Amino acid sequence: MIVRAFESADWDQVWPIVEEIVRAADTYTYDPAMTESAARDTWIEPGDGPGLTVVATEDDRIFGTARMGPNRPGPGKHVATASFMVSADARGRGVGRRLCAHALDWAREQGYAGMQFNAVAASNVHAVHLYETLGFTLVGTVPGAFEHPELGRIGLHVMYCDLAKA
């Protein structure tokens, strides 16, 4: 499996992954009624930077996607952020780990001091564990900040990785 920069022709395979995850409404704070056009505008980083969108592929099939860039502008621009989506049939195959490791390497290469995740659903225990194995620490949890479709209001974790240490 390789991770490479998103190309416009990839959208036909990326959209079903994004759509499935957004519609489930159990991990992302995106509106589950998000249109394809809005999803593309939200997920695909512009080609002129400072962010990047990538895909994880094998044999011309896309199994996952990630977007990365600065977490905040101005005085916060030295900290990166990233988001990941993996197709349901590829979960448990290391796609998420590969995408997250790629994002961390990219952030180091770009000179970021750290990477921060602002909204990891507390119920997404597999992602939390993965992030911790890659050097992230749980900074805090905003109680009740996420309306999970089955669990009701649950916490959103803030996680951070100091790129000088990880």
Give an overview in words.
By secondary structure, this protein is an alpha+beta fold. It has a single domain, classed as Gcn5-related N-acetyltransferase (GNAT) (Aminopeptidase, 3-Layer(aba) Sandwich), CATH 3.40.630. The chain is built from four helices and seven strands, in the order βααβββαβαββ. Strands 1-2-3-4-5-7-6 form a seven-stranded mixed beta sheet. A hairpin with an 8-residue loop joins β3 and β4. α1 crosses α2. It is globular. The two termini are 23 Å apart. The mean pLDDT is 96.
Strand content: 35-45%
What average pLDDT do the residues reach?
96
Which percent range fits the helix content? 25-40%
Oligomer: single chain
CATH architecture: 3-Layer(aba) Sandwich
Low-pLDDT parts are none
Alpha-carbon Rg, integer: 15 Å
Quickly count the domains. Answer: 1
- Give the helix tally: 4
How far is the first residue's CA from the last residue's CA?
23 Å
Q: Can you count the beta strands?
A: 7
Give me the side-by-side strand order of the main sheet.
Answer: 1-2-3-4-5-7-6
Looking at CATH, the homologous superfamily is: Gcn5-related N-acetyltransferase (GNAT)
CATH class: Alpha Beta
Outline? globular
The helix-strand sequence is EHHEEEHEHEE
Helix/strand structural class? alpha+beta
Largest sheet: 7 strands, mixed
CATH topology, by name, is: Aminopeptidase
